[in-house]
Amino acid sequence: MKGTVFVELLKMAETEFGEDVVDNVLDNADLDSGGVYTAVGNYPCSELVTLVTAFSEHSGLSGEVLQKAFGHWMLKNFGDNYPEFFKDKKDSFEMLEAIDGEIHVEVRKLYPEAELPRFSTSRTSENTLEMHYSSPRPLAAFCHGLIEATTEHFKQRAEITQKVPTNANVNARFEIRLVDQPAEPPVHAD
Ligand code: HEM
Prior knowledge:
alpha+beta, H-NOX domain, 2 domains, 4-stranded antiparallel beta sheet, 4 strands, globular, binds protoporphyrin IX containing FE
């Protein structure tokens, strides 16, 4: 995986748990990289899993909760660093539908060594999108966080459910259902 992902995970952990916890985890985890990551390097995904597990032990938060939080963190990072991918999309469904055929395709051109998942999507009703996530990496909860953060980025309220995959080649099946936005408060002329 790309070094940026590791650099950002450590930044999130530093913000959430403090520098001492991060130092402690890096000192004690058995990492081939020695816990030294540069944004331009590439490192095995297994190290990401080791780090998430260690932060989970330190914080008492489950690995799933941490992966989800990291999905939110990374979407903010993508929004800041790659605004061009967001700006021509009218809502979260358009954005999510563009990941596999457009956004990750561009990412692969920029970084040929990127390890990217595959997605297939279908609109099952006017306000429901089904998204199938396939990857050799165990990052479905990270994906869940990215999807949640995408709906928030477009200021849409959604209920996201992870369903049991029916296809053996798929790691996770998400149903994203937009729920009614709260009505705008009436504007009172004083
Ligand atoms: C502008 C938006 C986006 C950019 C620039 C982007 C780029 C990237 C990059 C650079 C990686 C790391 C690849 C590696 O480490 O080798 C990645 C991984 C990933 N991306 Fe995206 N991404 C974007 C949006 C999204 C969204 C909205 C989703 C959610 C559906 C998503 C799902 C994933 C997942 C789950 C991974 C982890 C790898 C795996 O599960 O196999 N991405 N993406």
